[in-house]
Amino acid sequence: MDSILSGFLPDGSSISSLIPAFRLTDFLDIVGVAVLIYLLISWVRKTRAWVLFRGIAIVLVIWLIAVVAQLNMMMWIFQNVFNIGILAIVVIFQPELRRALEKLGTNNVFTNMFSVGNINAVNERTAESITRAMVSMAEVKTGALICVERQVALGEYEQTGIPLNADVTSQLLINIFEKNTPLHDGAVIIRQNRVLAATCYLPLSDNSNISKELGTRHRAALGLSEVSDAKIFIVSEETGAMSMAVSGQIYRDITPEQIKKELLGEGVEDRNRNGAGPVMSLKERLGRRISGKE
User: Which one, out of 73, 124, 180, 204, has a CA that is 20 to 30 A from the CA of 40?
Assistant: First the structure.
């Protein structure tokens, strides 16, 4: 076979010499591009960008038809549109691009690379105060929204509220969320075992799979958990049920023991991140987790 093919090769050449050497870096390059394409498609399919992406695909098909059929006027229009196409895509997809970059910044792999330790670790006294306050408010159905900052700073949301910079006590938290008081509407942000600010406004989640029985307070908690690594604790004003939002998920009807474990870094998300088993049972997690269907 080699003797037959050699007649078609340049003098002194062999089949093996014409096949480029495949290096380890080439393999890594292919894998890297494949992963990027997969992540891009996965991200697009989970946002409204998927509809826009399909629209762009249709436009590209029309452009190919214009090229093949030599439709000069159509080609001229597309050529001028493509000159500003990149800028238009950035403007159109600005909310999705920002959310994707925020998600990348809160990814555990990259966060741990640049982490200098959990400077916002909650101590026993703070965990006990928050837990006691939530239980007390749940008993009388007082709505509450408590955000515990971790690695990702919540400065932009802190600025929307009223500064307090006070010690965390159950009495203070109960008083803040007491109905018909000036500070009850909005969220409390806790940083380094201090109540940083109250009446803070949080970004609302646009997750369409959230249960309709959950209101603005839960949607705001989920929205913040999607763009930060904070743990957000909620008391429902309608039912008095206690919930937690973290990493884009909501865990409903959690117990005081689970609240305290989550605050001290011993809960389901922390243990899963460290390779240990979850605090909640698998049945509880599947029953209470509502990022998708309940």
Answer: 204
